[in-house]
Amino acid sequence: MAKILITGAAGGFGSLTIKQLIKEGHSVVGTARDISGRNKGKASELEKLGAKVVEMDITTDESVNRGVEKANQQLGGID
After folding, report:
1. Contacts of 30 by beta carbon, 8 Å cutoff, 6+ apart
2. DSSP alpha helix (H) spans, 1-54
3. 57 vs 6, 21, 60, CA distance in Å?
4. Whether pTM exceeds 0.85
5. pLDDT (tens digit, 9 = 90+) per residue, 50-75?
6. Model pLDDT, residue 30
7. Collapsing DSSP states into helix, strand and coil, what is residue 31?
8. 66 CB contacts (<8 Å, ≥6 apart)?
9. Predicted pLDDT of residue 65
10. What is the phi-psi region of residue 10: left when phi exceeds 0, alpha when psi lies from -120 to 50, beta otherwise?
């Protein structure tokens, strides 16, 4: 199975995509802003299903680089 990174994990499409990929047996890291604040509940829900969730704001290169690096570490690479 694939190791996949999905942005927008706290939103409708991102969350649904992650849930389907987990159901299919893939390893998934979802990204979202403010995962210890306003998106804490959604992050917790996805983690309970088996996804990893990392902080990422796609509007800044620094945040994207940190998020991708953390996702790589958690999954042992991204396909």
Report:
1. 5, 6, 7, 8, 9, 14, 15, 18, 43, 46, 51, 52, 53, 54
2. 12-23, 40-49
3. 13, 22, 6
4. yes
5. 999 999 999 999 999 999 999 999 99
6. 98
7. strand
8. 55, 56
9. 97
10. alpha
